[in-house]
Amino acid sequence: MVASQTSQEGNTFTTYPDPLIIPPLQNHKQTFIILHGRGSNASTFGPPLLNTQVSKMHTFQSSFPNARFVFPTASKRRAQIFNRSVINQWFDNWSLQAPDERTELQIEGLRETSRYIHTLLRGAIEDVGAENVVLGGLSQGCAASLIALLTWNGEPIAAAFGMCGWLPFRMQMEEIAGFGSLDDGDGAENDLFESDGEAGVQDLPTQGTTFLFEELELSAKAPSMSFQQTPVFLGHGVEDEKVAVGLGQEAVSCLKHLGASVEWQKYEGLGHWYSGAMLCDLVDTLRRWTTWEQN
To answer: What letter does residue 116 receive in the DSSP assignment?
Structure first.
């Protein structure tokens, strides 16, 4: 059982309720940590996701019979765009029509949520090993899980995934690191990982990630970049009316520039949600990336 957590920022306290924990159908060998979207909670989001059919024989849950599913619930925060109404959200953010405006609203929540998710990751790794842990989320939960992944300095986990989400601070990370096109125009691929040869100079991906650590005030240590060893699956509905599919594509581009291995899928006719087809692709991808035995 993972206890609720209270974190302190200045003179304010943020409480995360106990996660919803769904035990494995068979012996416990893997752990999934999956974050809901803005305004939702674990009990509303988790069970329907697990019960979604991904094939004639299996639901998402039964596809991984040895997996424990951990569904955290976001803390209560005031949403500036909703006249400071108090809702469950992993972090505050302004309109996704202009995701790079008022980014300062994101900082406190992303810092606290990343620390909380890192605590859940450490507990899961202690139970089953990093190679058996998966982190993911939907919508704002996807955004928060990606930031938690980029700022994770522990062992590389098995995989990460996101559905209908985006990457906060994408533009700033790209600007700080000076990312250019992967192709220089004459068909030659630029080496975005090379240093200028000076001792102590960070490569471009590390510069971009260091910006994130500094902006969120998460660690005095240099980023370990362990996320570069964690493959990421991102799926997005083409008809998404809340988080435009272009934001998902931009997240993919930025993650790849940072050195992550990303698999990207778009789904025609799908709005701001997951589907059986998306989860089926996720199941197939995770099976391809792992060597988990079922018993």
So the answer is: H
Angle of helix 204-216 relative to helix 170-177, nearest 10 degrees, comes to 130
- Could you tell me where the beta strands, DSSP code E, fall in 17-164? 20-22, 30-35, 67-71, 76-79, 85-88, 133-138, 159-163
Q: Contact at 8 Å (CB) between 276 and 52?
A: yes
What type of residue sits at position 91? F
Indicate the pTM of the whole model: 0.88
Q: What is the spatial distance between Cα 131 and Cα 266, in angstroms, rounded to a whole number?
A: 27
pLDDT digits (tens, 9 = 90+) for 77-91: 887 766 777 889 999
Residue 273, token pair as written in the block: 């949600």
DSSP string, 187-232: SPBP-TT---S-TTPPPHHHHHHHHHHHHHT--SSPP--GGGGS-E
Segment 2-33, tens digit of pLDDT: 445 554 443 344 689 999 999 999 999 999 99
Q: Are 127 and 32 in contact (CB under 8 A)?
A: no
